[in-house]
Design goal:
4 copies of one chain form a homotetramer. Chain A is α/β, with parallel strands linked by helices. Chain A has 11 helices and 10 strands. Chains A, B, C, D: This is S-adenosyl-L-homocysteine hydrolase NAD binding domain-containing protein.
C-alpha cells in the first residue's frame, strides 16, 4: 500500500488503484476484531500459555494493538503498552493500560508482542534483558519488528522445538521462546475465520467491479479509497449473519440530517475533516 | 458546528473558524471517555437504579453510544443497540451487542438511552409501549431525540418528583421516568471531570493561538480542523498526569517510517483517505 | 455478627439467631454486586473524579474488593490489590490485578480504597507518602481501616470542603482528599438500590418467619445459617424482575442428580465440605 | 468423587480419602480459570469460529459455566444462560446474561455449550431445532450432557470431517457441528497449561503427604477436605510466578482479627457456615 502511494506521488502509477486496505470494514475486521481473537489463538496453539496473571507488553496501540490488549486484558493478563504517538498513548491510558518505555518493563514481562509497523522495535538490547521463558512474537506488518537477525550470533543456541516455535538460549541458560521466527503470528500460527475472509473478499470484489464499471475518466492514475457507500454496502451484506436489524430513517429524519435514506450516512463535509485517526501510524 | 459548515458552504462565513469539536482528543474525551462515565453517574444521581441485570436499549452507536454501551455492559446490564448505519451496526455486533429495531425491544427494556443526533428517535408510539417504570433519557446532541412534546397531552399526568426527574403517568397507571425532560443527561444530571475540561480548554486555546499567530492568508473564510500536530500536542501535555512515558523514534526508525521524530505521526497521505469514520453520523 | 458467634461459643447466647449476613444472596448483593456500583457512585458524588487512566490500590480482595476492582478496571482504571490471604491473592492475579504491598505503590496511586475488615490498614506512615491529591476512602466494615486518628496532629490542616469531603493538608502543601472521615463510603456517600434492599429485607423476613414457625427445639441457642432452600427461595422471588426463566429438572435428571426437583439444588454432602471460601477473611 | 461420598455414606469406604477436587485452588484453577481459556482454545482449534457477534447459549452457570460465559462475552459473543438453581440464575442476571429456557433460544443460537454435570441437557428435541451450522459441545463432567446416542438414527448422516469434529446432517440438509462426540471439549480439543497442572499436582501431593504423615486415628474411613491451611500453602507456592507480594498481618491486626499470622486466614466459625455455594450443583 505504501508503495502504491509512493508510486502515485511520483506520478508512476499507470492504472487507478483502490486502497481497499483502508476501508472501514476491512480495517476493523482484519485488524481490530480479527487480531483480538488471533493473538489468543496463535499463542495457545504454539505455547499453551495460560493468559491469567501473565504480564504482557504490547508495542503499538493502533487497531492491532488495541485488539491484542483488549483480548489479553479480558482473560486476566496485566498489559503494558508502548507508543510513539501521544494520541494513541492517551487512548491506552483511558482504556486502562500503563504506557511505558520498553526498558521499564522488559525485565519482568512474560510475553512481548509487537504491532507497530516499525522496524527493530525489539532489538538485541531488549532480548538480552528478557527473563527466562519470555515469549516473543510479532503481530505487526512485517518481519522487521523484532530484530531476529541479531539473535544469530555464536554465543546463542537455537533449538527448534516444534513448528513456529524456537528456543533461543543464552550462555547462562536463559531461554526465550520466539514464535514464527518473528514473522506474523496471526498468519503463521493462527487461522482466519471465514467471516473475515468474506468481508475482505467482498470488499475486494466490489472495488474491482467499481473500477471496471466506472465511466471513462472517473478514476485517474491515482490511489482511491473505496467509495463510502460501498463500504456501507459490504457491512450491510454481513448483518443478517448476526440477525441484526437496521433502523431506517423516516423522511423527516433524513431531511433533518440532510441525508439520503439509503446512505451514505456520513455527511459530505466529513470527507474534508479527515483528521480522525482511526489507525495510528504506529501500526500498518 | 453544522451551522458553521453550512455558512461556509454558502460562502457566508466571514472569518476563519477552527472545528475544534472534531479534533481527536476532544472527540474521544468529550464523547467516548466522558460519556462512558457520565451515563452511569447521571442515572445514579437521578434514579439510584441498579445496573446489574437491567435491560437497556441504546439508540445510536457512535462515540457516545459506544461509551454508554461499554459502561453499562461492564456493570452487568444487557444492552441492545439500534443503528441506521450498517458499519456502526456491524461494530456493535462485533462488540457483543444485539442490533435491533426499537420496536423489537421497547416493551421489555428497563432503560432507553438516545445518542443519535437525530430527531424523534423515541416518539409517542414507543413511549406508549414502554413498560411500567421504564427510565428514558437522552445523551445525544439536543433535546429533540425524545419527542417530549408528544407527552404533553391531557390524558397523561406529569409528576415532578425531584430536580431533573419527572414521572409521566398513563391512564392505566403505567408510569415512565423521564430524565431532564429529554435534555442532555450528561450536562443536566452529571458533572464533567476537570481532566476533560482541561483537554477541551487546551484544545480551544491552541486553536485561538493558531488563528491569531497564523500568517496573513494562511486561513481563509472557511472551517478548518485543528492541525494534527497540535492535536498531538494537546495529548502529550496530558500524558504526565497518567505517569505515561512515550517512546521516541530512533533516527533509523523515523527514516523507515518517513516521519519527523517529533510528529505528526500520521503520514500526509492519510489526510486524503478520509473515509475512516470514527464518529458515525448517528451522533453529533 | 462476630459478637453473636463469640456469645454462642461462650454459651451466652440466650436465643437462637439466624446469620442472615452469610446467606448467599445477601452476601452477593450487599457486597459484590452492590459495591461494584456504589464504589463508582460514591467516588463520583464526592469528587467527580474521572476513572479512566487513574491508578488505584484496593486493599483486600474479598467480595467487596472484587466488586470495587471489577468496576474500576471496567472503567479504565489501573488497579493494584493488597492481600494477606494467598488464595485471594492468587484469585486477584488470575483476574488481572497486580498483587503488591501497599508500600510498593503508595507513592504514585491516585485513589486508595480499603475493604479488608481489618484495622489500621492505611496508617499514618502511608498517608505521609501519598501524592498530592490522592483520594482515600473506606468500603470495609468499620471506620478503623484508615487510621484517621493519626491525622489529627497539629502540623496537619483539615479543610472541610463539602459534606463527606475533607482536605488534609501537610506543611509542604500536599493534600489528600479524605472521604466520609474514613467511615463507609457506600453508606455515607452513595445510595442503596431498592433491588438490594428488597433482597435483604426478604431474607431477614424469611429468617424471622422460620424462627417463629419452627417447632419447639428445632433451633437451640446458637447461630444458624438461613436454610439453603430459603436462600434459593429469596433468589427465585427476584428472578421475574429480570425476566429470567428457570429450567426445571426432569424426573430422570432429578433422580440422576439425586435431588428434589424443587431444590435445594446443592446435595447434602456439600454441607460438610465447607472449605469453599466465597468471602475471604480480609473483608467483613 | 460422588462415588467416594456414596461409599462413605454406606460405610463401605475402607481408607481415609481426601476430596482434593473441592479444594479452593483446584476448583478455581481446573474449573473457572482454566475453562475460561480452554473454551476459546477448544472452539478455535476445532472450528476456527469467530467469536465476535456469535450468539451462544451456555447450559449451567457453575464455575465452568461462569468461565465460559466470561470469556465469550469478553470476545464479543452474545451469551444466554440456562440454569435450574435460582441463586446461580440470579448471579447470571447480575453478570449481564439473559437467563432463558433452552427452548427460547435454541432456534437462533450459533453455539451450544453444556456445563451442567447433568444428563440429557441437550436432547434430540433441541438438536432437531438447531439452525444450520450450529456448533454443539460439552464442557461438563461426562459425555451424557448431550444426548449423542439420539443422533444415531437412520435418517441422520454423520460426516467425520477432522479429528474431534463431526457433521451430523438432517434429511433437509441442515447440519450441526458436533465436537468430540459430546465428550469433554477441554480434555479432547484443548490443552492444559502447565501452571494448572502444577496447582493440581501440588494439591494432590500435599494431600498424600498429609494422609501419610497423620497420626494414627487422625483420619477415619471417610472423605475429608484438604485442610484449609494446606490449600493456602498451595496458593502461596504459586504466587511468586506472578511476582505477587503478600501483605503480612501485624501482631495488633492478627489479634484484632483473632487469626494466626501464618494462617489459616478464615476463622474457625466459617467452617460451620458452609452455605456459601461457590459451585452450584449444576456443574460437576
Amino acid at each position: 500500500l505504501k508503495i502504491l502511494y509512493q508510486l502515485s506521488k511520483a506520478g508512476k502509477l499507470c492504472v487507478p488503484a483502490m486502497n481497499v486496505n483502508d476501508s472501514v470494514t476491512k480495517q476493523k475486521f482484519d485488524n481490530l476484531y480479527c487480531c483480538r481473537e488471533s493473538i489468543l489463538d496463535g499463542l495457545k496453539r504454539t505455547t499453551d500459555v495460560m493468559f491469567g496473571g501473565k504480564q504482557v507488553v504490547v508495542c503499538g496501540y493502533g487497531e492491532v494493538g488495541k485488539g491484542c490488549c483488549a483480548a489479553l486484558k479480558a482473560l486476566g493478563s496485566i498489559v503494558y503498552v508502548t507508543e510513539i504517538d501521544p494520541i494513541c498513548a492517551l487512548q491506552a491510558c483511558m482504556d486502562g493500560f500503563r504506557v511505558v518505555k520498553l526498558s521499564q518493563v522488559i525485565r519482568h514481562v512474560d510475553i512481548v508482542i509487537t504491532c507497530t509497523g516499525n522496524k527493530n522495535v525489539v532489538g538485541r538490547e531488549y532480548l538480552d534483558r528478557m527473563k527466562n521463558g519470555c515469549i516473543v512474537c510479532n503481530m505487526g506488518h512485517s518481519n522487521t519488528e523484532i530484530d531476529v537477525a541479531s539473535l544469530h550470533t555464536p554465543e546463542l543456541t537455537w533449538e527448534h522445538v516444534r513448528p513456529q516455535v524456537d528456543h533461543v538460549i543464552w550462555p547462562d541458560g536463559k531461554k526465550i521462546i520466539l514464535l514464527a521466527e518473528g514473522r506474523l503470528l496471526n498468519l503463521s500460527c493462527s487461522t482466519v475465520p471465514t467471516f473475515v475472509l468474506s468481508i475482505t473478499a467482498t470488499t475486494q470484489a466490489l472495488a474491482l467491479i467499481e473500477l471496471y464499471n466506472a465511466t471513462e475518466g472517473r478514476y485517474k492514475q491515482d490511489v482511491y479509497l473505496l467509495p463510502k457507500k460501498m463500504d456501507e454496502y459490504v457491512a450491510s451484506l454481513h448483518l443478517p449473519a448476526f440477525d441484526a436489524h437496521l433502523t431506517e430513517l423516516t423522511d423527516e429524519q433524513a431531511k433533518y440530517l440532510n441525508l439520503n435514506k439509503n446512505g451514505p450516512f456520513k455527511p459530505n463535509y466529513y470527507r474534508h475533516v479527515s483528521a480522525q485517526r482511526k489507525t495510528c501510524i504506529s501500526h500498518n
